Amino acid sequence: QVQLVESGGGLVHPGGSLRLSCAASGSIFSTDAMGWYRQTPGKERELVATITRGGITNYASSVKGRFTISRDNAKSTVYLQMNSLKPEDTAVYYCTAKVRTIVGAGISLDDYWGQGTQVTVSS
Question: With the CA atoms of 18, 90, 41 and 25 taken in that order, what torsion angle do they form, in degrees rounded to the nearest 10?
Fold first, then answer.
């Protein structure tokens, strides 16, 4: 069983900053790619940023230059530093991770999602 727990969401004024964290726990052998997605009511969940185990990053064009994704492999934790926040960044932010777990005599690679954390950018 693997759990992803997010923290760091909240209310911030336009131009402000927030830092999201997501820690994976449970019977983890290793974590591969990790990332952040976001969703607003009535819209599909969209990619915000991803990072490989080796640190290669990918960003949505809407957040490039303002958001920074990073990770601590030893802690199975991914972070999202969000600067220069805009009202259109308001959403529920979800973390995701590809996690390897030991199943019997083998290893299983599966996708896991956190429960989501609300980010509201408003004056």
Answer: -10
Mean pLDDT confidence for 45-68? 98
- Whether 1 has a pLDDT exceeding 90, the answer reads no
Quick: pLDDT tens for 107-120.
999 999 999 999 99
**CA separation for the pair 110, 71 (Å, rounded):** 19
Express the helix, strand and coil content of the chain in percent, nearest 5 each: 5, 60, 35
Whole-number Å distance between alpha carbons of 81 and 15? 13
Whether the CB-CB separation of 63 and 86 falls below 8 Å is answered with no
pLDDT above 90 (res 11)? yes
Q: How far apart are CA 89 and CA 100, in angstroms?
A: 31
